[in-house]
Amino acid sequence: MRKTMGRVVGVLLVVLLIGITGACSKKQVPSQPGMSGATPGAYGPGAGGPGGMDDARWRELGITTEAEKREFLEKAQAFENQDIYFDYDAYTLTQPAQKVLDEKLAFLKRYPKVKVTVEGHCDERGTTEYNMALGERRANAAYQYLANAGLQGVKLASISFGKERPLATGHDEASWAKNRRAHFAINY
Amino acid sequence: MLFCRKWNKGLLVAFLGLVFVAAFIGKAAAQTYEGTIKGVNFQKIPIAVPEFKYMSSEQTQFARDMAQTLANDLDFSGVFRPLDPKGFVEDPQAMGLNAPEIQFPNWKRIGADYLVRGSYQVQGSSVRMEGRLFDVVGQKMIKGKVYDGDIRSWRSMVHDLADEILLALTGERGVFDTKIAYVQSTGNGKEIFYCDFDGSNPVQVTRDNSIALSPNWSRDMSQLAYVSYKDGAPKIYSANVQTGAQTLICNYPGTNISPAWRPGRSELAVTMTKDGNPDIFLVSSSGQILQKLVHGWSINVSPDWSPDGRKLAYVSNESGNPQVYVLDVGSGQKKRITFSGNYNTSPAWSPKGDWIAYSGVAGGNHNIFITRAEGGETKQLTSGGGNNESPSWSPDGRMIAFSSTRQGGPAIWALLVDGTGIKRLTRQGGSQELPDWSARLSR
After folding, report:
1. Residue B205 covered by a domain
2. pLDDT of residue B24
3. What average pLDDT is seen over chain B?
4. Is residue A60 classed as helix, strand or coil in its secondary structure?
5. pLDDT digits (tens, 9 = 90+) for A54-103
6. Residue A164: C-alpha distances to residues A173, A187, B79 (Å)
7. Do residues A98 and A86 lie in contact, with contact meaning Cβ atoms separated by under 8 Å?
8. In chain B, which among 405-424 make CB contacts under 8 A with chain A?
9. Model confidence pLDDT, tens digit, residues B84-134
10. Which of B184, B188, B338, B436 to mutate to test the interface with A (most CBs of A within 10 A)?
11. Three-class HEC string of B378-391
12. Which end of chain A is more exposed for a tag (fewer CB within 10 A), N or C?
């Protein structure tokens, strides 16, 4: 129940942020509670959505036309929507995970000026502190994969949320599998 | 019963009030139950706690409240079995306070080994409370103590009396002045709270509107180190329990988690990923790195100090899954001490240093285990009731607090070290997790 509440509040906050920024048009933004549930904007200016971006920032990303903006927002959404998943108590990158990471690399090569935070998450089973470390390992595995690709200019950060921010709130393997993930958040 | 009486013949320790600041009534000899709860067949000591006698007509409700609180404390300890007052023959307001005035055969008949006779007198906003412990068979007083203070502090007077009774009969104080820190869910976040030893009187320590985790008491109970996401990444802070003032301790790049104050020193063991791996460091109270204690490619987390501060129990997955290890800080030698199961975490060193409690997966759920600190003998204390995690010892080593989902959402529970006497401590809304039992208040 608590987790459901937390999820709902998290989603509401994300929705609220989108509402305030008002620049997401009709696009569906993933319901990633991320940091927004607790400390909105903790990752610096504009965190939480692209709505806070001014012209200078768009130019910095190399985007000038409306068409380019639309293309970026679409790709950014796909980038954020696709998590990678891990096995129980593991942080090795599976083949499907590496495939997804390759797609992320393509986006980052296209937009080398974006800032990305890799979030490591765990399922509810197991100890809080061990899961914090495990989440860190997961985030780090993805981070290293991207960093090792030799991207120029891309700013990467990583953070572990352990089991504190589950996406799925069920107590079964289907939910756990969804929560053993690394999520990729763009810091606009 | 017979078992208990046998122990009565044990050590008679002469006892001249060295320990106590408060006034003694009469001299006493304390009988010591050797190894009180170590025995598997331990039988609880039957004790009668009649209503306290009111010496003035003010605030007569305390007659029952004080007796009830004392009986609850004695029951909580796991050492005593307070008898049902319904069976008491003597009228508590009429019966005397001195041994010659007490009809001991009446108390012996209902099975009491001991009798606590309390009285109090209220004057304005202050109270004088007196407690006397009688040996029913020997028909003599064992100990007495007088308390003077504000009427509002009557509860802590009763807790202290319970501690004295435990000390007199077992050779060791109870834990009735101790606190348990824990993590409380609050809407969309988690904050640090603490409560009394029995789960009552919850007090909120942090108001960060973020995720706070892993509270850890300093030995003097003035500080709680904890982890918070309030500044984005997880960092280690310390909160002054009285003022709420917070100090940032560890703010290194990456993850800063699992603080553990070192006994006897103003230092902590923590896990940090600043070098790219979750390693365990020794840091000063201001976060200065003093030593890298455990490092490698694996996860190293959840340090917990031995009572002498020389060794560190911690969790590492260097074998491929999480297991408990012990590091000798002086020699740098480490030793794995858990071998059964593939998920053993949250080590907690017993106050006497002989056992390490931990949480291990058995039967599909997390359960509380204890194992010898040097490895070897292992006992499973919980089974068949949800997940039982994050053990923390009471400072007398008699009990272990832990979080359990055996009755719905996570709450703090406690049990006796022999696995009996399991009871729920917290009944607040939301979830309560990651308990950390304080030391005793210094006296």
Report:
1. yes
2. 38
3. 89
4. helix
5. 888 888 888 889 999 999 999 999 999 999 999 999 999 999 999 999 99
6. 17, 21, 38
7. no
8. 409
9. 999 999 999 999 999 999 999 999 999 999 999 999 999 999 999 999 999
10. B188
11. EEECCCCCCCEEEE
12. N
DSSP helix/strand/coil, A19: helix
CB spacing of B271 vs A158 below 8 angstroms: no
| DSSP code of residue B265 | S
Q: How far is A174 from chain B (nearest CA, A)?
A: 17
Cβ within 8 Å, pair B230-A6:
no
Give how many domains chain B has, as a whole number. Answer: 2
CATH number of A2-187: 3.30.1330.60
CATH code where residue B215 lies: 2.120.10.30
What is the CA angle A173-B424-B151, rounded to 5? 145
Amino acid identity, residue B355?
W
Across the interface, whether the CB atoms of A39 and B230 are under 8 A apart is answered yes
> Are A38 and B230 a contacting pair at CB < 8 A?
yes
Q: Kindly state the percentage of chain B with pLDDT values over 70.
A: 90
pTM of the shown model: 0.83
- Sign of the Cα torsion B76, B79, B83, B85 reads negative
Question: What is the ipTM for the molecules in this complex?
Answer: 0.84
- Say if the Cβ atoms of A127 and B255 lie within 8 Å: no
Tokens of B391: 């053990």
Whether residues B219 and B368 share a domain: the answer is: yes
State which amino acid sits at residue B261.
W
Range of the domain at B191: 179-437
Which candidate from B210, B346, B433 shows the least CB-CB separation from A38? B210
Average pLDDT rounded to a whole number, residues B322-346: 97
> Comparing B190 with A32, which gets the higher pLDDT?
B190
The single residue listed with the structure tokens 């292992």 is B378
A vs B: CB pairs below 8 A? 111
